[in-house]
Specification:
Layout (H helix, E strand, L loop, with lengths): L12 H11 L6 E6 L5 E6 L2 E6 L2 E8 L9 H9 L1 E6 L5 H6 L10 H5 L3 E2 L8 E2 L4 E12 L7 E13 L4 E2 L2 E2 L1 H4 L2 E3 L5 E3 L11
Antiparallel strand pairs: 1-2, 1-5, 3-4, 4-9, 5-8, 6-7, 8-9, 10-11, 12-13
Length: 205
């Protein structure tokens, strides 16, 4: 096959972005709830997201640097200020409401109200959970790694999971049924995917 060779030093950052979100797929979505120092609630989706440790349980996601006067998302400010956040897992049933929270709005806007989502109190942190989500992870900030402050750069946020909340209807002996979770993932551009088409491959002995 003919291969396109790309040198990041000479390519435009926006083209590198298109390549990365096109090949790092599918990406799970961290639907992160946070609050600022005044208690204003914030919700935002992040598709640079994964787990990075189970003992202790730690999750991480990236907030990107954007061009313009508001280079960082409100989530980064809130996490740096309060050291707390909740990761909610996105299912098909409220995908459109999740997408509504990605609109560019001021920090005074409550995205729960904007999207018509239901906040419920967390047990160990101040940010609320999303009632429509089957899974919530209450987190305390472990570390922030600022990778680059240039547009297209980002900050890697790592959080210790203090408490898991999982809908009992989707879990059996700690195993989550993907058919009941109905999580969605992110592809490139505006494209998302459902997680219906699955296959098993046992590891070799």
């Amino acid at each position: 096959m003919d291969m396109l060779r790309v040198d990041p030093e000479s390519a435009l950052p926006e083209n590198i972005y298109k390549l990365m979100i096109g090949v790092i797929v599918p990406r799970p979505i961290a639907f992160v709830s946070s609050v600022d120092e005044r208690g204003v609630r914030n919700l935002a989706p992040f598709s640079y997201f994964t787990g990075c440790s189970t003992n202790p349980p730690v999750v991480c996601f990236v907030t990107a640097v954007r061009p313009g006067p508001r280079a960082s998302k409100d989530t980064l400010h809130n996490v740096l200020t309060t050291s707390e956040f909740v990761v909610n897992i996105v299912s098909e049933a409220f995908a459109e409401k999740m997408n509504a929270t990605s609109a560019e709005v001021g920090p005074e806007v409550d995205e729960f109200e904007l999207a018509g989502l239901t906040p419920i109190a967390s047990e160990l942190v101040k940010p609320p959970r999303v009632a429509e989500s089957h899974v919530h992870m209450e987190c305390r900030l472990r570390q922030v790694l600022h990778i680059s402050d240039r547009p297209g750069g980002g900050s890697l946020i790592l959080g210790d999971v203090l408490r898991f909340h999982i809908d009992e209807a989707i879990v059996d002996n700690y195993r989550v049924d993907p058919e009941k979770l109905k999580a969605i993932g992110r592809m490139g551009g505006p494209t998302y995917l459902r997680t219906h088409d699955r296959f098993d491959m046992p590891r070799p002995k």
